[in-house]
Amino acid sequence: MRALAPIAVVVALLAAVPLVTASNLVLNFLVVALLTALVGQGWNLLGGYGGQYSFGHAAFFGTGAYATAILQVRYGVNAWLGFAVGIAAGAAVGAIIGALSFRSGLKGSYFALVTLAFAEVLRIIASVAPITGAGVGTLIKLDLRPEALQFQSRVPFYWIILGLVAVSLVIMRMIEDSRFGAYLLALRENEDAAKALGVNTTLIKLGAMTVSAAIAAAGGCFYAQYFLFVDAGIAYGSWISIAALLAPIVGGAGTVFGPLLGALVVKTLGEATKLVAGDAPGLDLVIYGCVLILIVAFAPSGIAGLLRGAFQRFAAVKSLRPGQPHG
Amino acid sequence: MLSPAILVPAVFNGLMTGAVYALIALGLTLIYGVLHIINFAHGALLTAAMFAAFFAYKLLGLDPYLAAVPLTVLFFGLGYALQRFVIGLAGHGDDRNILLITLGLAIVIENALLVAFRADTRTINLPYAFDVIEIGTAFLAVPRVIAFAVVILVALALWLFMRWTDTGKAIRAVAKEKLGAELSGIDVGHIYAVTFGLGTACVAVAACLLIPTYYVNPTAGNAFVLIAFTIVVLGGMGSVVGALVSGLFVGVVESLSGLYLGESLGQIGIFVMFILVLLFRPSGLFGERA
Amino acid sequence: MAEPLLRVDGVSKRFGGLLAVDNVSLDVQSGRITALIGPNGAGKTTLFAMISGFLTPSMGRIYHRGDDITGVPPYRLARRGITRTFQIVRPFAGLTVHENIAIGAHLSRRSRAAARDAAAQIAQLVGLVEMLDKPAASLTVAGRKRLELARALATEPAVLLLDEVLAGLNPTELAAMVPTIRAVTDRGITIVMIEHVMQAVMSLAQYVYVLAEGHILTEGSPQEVVGDARVIEAYLGRGAAARLNAVGAVHG
User: Fold this and answer.
1) SS3 of C252, please?
2) How far B181 CA sits from the closest chain A CA (Å)?
3) Does A312 touch chain C (CB under 8 A)?
4) At residue C252, does pLDDT exceed 50?
5) Does residue B232 lie within any of the structural domains?
6) What pLDDT was estimated at residue A321?
7) Any residues with CB less than 8 A from the CB of C224 and at least 6 apart, and which?
8) CB–CB of A210/A98 below 8 Å?
9) Least Cα separation, residue B267 to chain A (angstroms)
10) How crowded is residue C149: how many other Cβ atoms within 10 Å of its Cβ?
């Protein structure tokens, strides 16, 4: 329980935001940042902890978004139920892609390539299939009732996405403390050595991929409810696959708070860019691409790594103060 | 439906398109065979080259086939610099890092083009773009025939380069046995950069061959590059012959399936083929067993 | 003679045109230290890879306690009690020494705390207690070899396959490592070791197999094998035995 204290503190602080400000600008910014953090959290489990870099997390995000949208629009399913089914659908897609990829022994760049390809296939199918509305997309009817998971004010949405992020943080902490988590780290560091020590690496990777996909799908379901519109480019586009990996890498891959930290930083950077240089399409992505390269080049452990390093140096200096025994 | 009058031109067209695909794939497989990295920035570089060819024509009046010469040199230099000063340094030699760096480059280049030139689709109108050559029952578009011929020449030139020049031999040495090459005094960092430069130069030539008949916009390169990836895994990562043969093969398959299945299904077909090869035979038809 | 714990029966491995292992049969008796020696390229590591499930034999079968384990994947063999170390050490570089060993201990323990406790005890046995909280990447070669051993021991194996665990150690480090290995046997663990360090083979092994060019050249006690002319020739080249004989240095 003590291990969950930092998470509780952070979540409490964030939860207090709507009580302090009524600004739609701030709330909207935070909602989008938290959504990015959620999808990034999913990516982080597979990529940061497991070392398997997916370039196609859109496949899970989009499946969640479309599943919940289509179920509501075409089959009249309740929005909350649709949300749950969307998560399950995303997890299922993750399990399938994972099973195919890992049983074939794909890793590294090949794995990244195949995930990219799967996401693209889904995007093309979604852009022509009648059930998704093809090129036109799927529009969820405005129905501002809690039963339909829609709200007049942004605040309930904010608390929902915050809640989802909080759950994902707790999940990551629990995984960190489990044998599954230990095995995941081991196979990231050296897969053969892990196998020799009794780790069923294929199964562990598959488990990580499925949970990772479920978390990303939850993000997709939320997106559908918040923006009420889904099309192939939104659901399965490269923008979300990039966001999914950018947040954890910038914040610190393989850490619990990395994706949240990274999402806040990246989104702030995006807003700052808009303020300074205007709204040209693609400009924010140029900045993001540069950030990715710079982080990998100079701070591969992300911001969390930089903070940890600074803290350690600070602690080392402190322990050398005159009059204090050191060592 | 299957009459020779329809099939034969379709096959010819497929071969000519396939030749350009093969050239793009050649650049990819060269980079993989020597540096052992999958260059995710290949598509963005192709798009950049296509824009360069476009503006060479629009602003300088340079015919694309002539522009190919300065552009090839320019993009060779760009590729060299990217590998030497960005990828090689920022990657710290770690596979996962290099993966992210090439992705980062792809994002930067593609979106910089988007910012600079917006999403509009542009084309050039060459006076002879629609001229045809007659071979039997087939009417072959002149730009495509030229493209086919150029690709054969480039492939030949590359082969001779690899065989007879010192740098070419050094490249082959590094591809086969990096440590040994290093110990023999070869500057591996330089060779890596030269190889990346060559791969990028291939893309520049391909761009000049494509621009007479294709449009250009910031995402144009991606479509070609996914096909190139399929060709590379089909032909075997690192296999030059494999890239050429499967390039032609994929070109013909695309032409024939476009004839009978329509465009979207054709695209999905290529992806599915790509995924299946990755899953079941990632070493490809010609590559070494993984 | 008792039923062997591990039996390799007519195993061969072909890589394209290369026959790396050629019809090798050997028995490993429980509780003993069996050594596998031979010049480089003889196929010893390939044989290990097949016994530990990393490679499948092209021909032949491998038995553990009478059960056919040919082609069983490594993680299942580890659960059976067969664990290997690697010739080129593979530490989990981003983890601490303690976490590294704990991974092995997790094989029979779910809880993190239990695994850590077991790992600390193994570290005692192997002499890594001071290094527990250091990152594995910061260890010296000798330290990494000990870590490799510790991790494998943490899985509580019945059979431990050591692949050149003594390679690259200086005489002091060697002198320290040999008793550690003997301590492992004292716990009842059967060891099969690939080794080049002859003095260690002489002092540790009870039975030796000599592999050359993929097949078994000879087998026997360390004394029998090391004096054998054919073994000397395998290592030092044709005619070496005769030359040494002329100096009165060899028998047989």
Assistant:
1) coil
2) 25
3) no
4) no
5) no
6) 62
7) none
8) yes
9) 8
10) 25
Closest CA to B270 of B33, B37, B49, B14: B14
| Residue B243 domain flag | no
Chain B interface includes A316 (CB < 8 A): no
Q: Are A291 and A250 in contact (CB under 8 A)?
A: yes
Interface test with A, best of C103, C116, C160 (most A CBs within 10 A): C103
Element (H, E) at C248: none
Read off the amino acid at residue A22. A
Q: The tokens of B5 are what?
A: 């009058």
Output the CA–CA distances (angstroms, integers) from residue A33 to A239, A247, A262, A264, in the order listed. Answer: 14, 10, 9, 6
Comparing A50 with B61, the larger pLDDT belongs to A50
Asked if the Cβ–Cβ distance from A117 to B96 is below 8 Å, we say no
Contact list, A197 vs chain C (CB under 8 Å) = 75, 78, 83, 103-104, 107, 151-152, 154-155
State the residue range of the domain holding B126: 16-218
- The token pair that represents A269 in the structure block: 């950077």
The pLDDT assigned to C144 comes to 93
| Residue B289's pLDDT band (cuts 50, 70, 90) | very low
* Rounded alpha-carbon distances, angstroms, from residue C47 to B254, C23, C70, C148, C160: 47, 11, 12, 19, 14
Q: Which residues of A touch B111 (CB under 8 A)?
A: 282-283, 285-286, 289
Query: Domain residue spans in chain A?
Result: 2-260
Interface confidence (ipTM) of the complex = 0.90
| Cα C13-C16-C19 angle, rounded to 5 deg | 40
Helix (H) or strand (E) holding B6: helix B4-35
Could you read off the pLDDT of A53-78 as tens digits, one per residue?
A: 999 999 999 999 999 999 999 999 99
Top-confidence residue, C242 or A117? A117
> Which of A127, A245, A283 is facing B115, going by the closest CB pair?
A283
Interface residue A277 vs chain B (CB under 8 A):
no
Q: How many other C-beta atoms can be found within 10 angstroms of the C-beta atom of residue C66? A: 9
In chain C the domains, ranked by start, together with CATH numbers, are 6-220 (3.40.50.300)
* Residue B259 falls inside a structural domain: no
pLDDT at C152 over 90: yes
Number of domains in chain B: 1
| Ranges of H-type helices in chain C | 44-51, 74-80, 97-105, 112-126, 141-154, 171-186, 198-204, 222-227, 229-236, 240-246
Q: What is the CATH number of domain A2-260?
A: 1.10.3470
Alpha helices in B61-165, H assignment, sequence order? 64-81, 88-90, 95-117, 142-164
Cα gap B201→A170, rounded to integer Å: 50
pLDDT in tens, C31-61: 999 999 988 878 899 999 999 999 999 999 9
State both tokens at C45: 């590591």
Kindly give, in sequence order, each residue whose CB lies less than 8 Å from that of residue C37, ignoring residues fewer than 6 positions away: C44, C194, C195, C196, C198, C201, C208, C209, C210, C211, C225
Residues 6+ apart with CB under 8 A from B232: B25, B28, B29, B32, B242, B243, B246, B284
Tell me if B265 is assigned to some domain: no
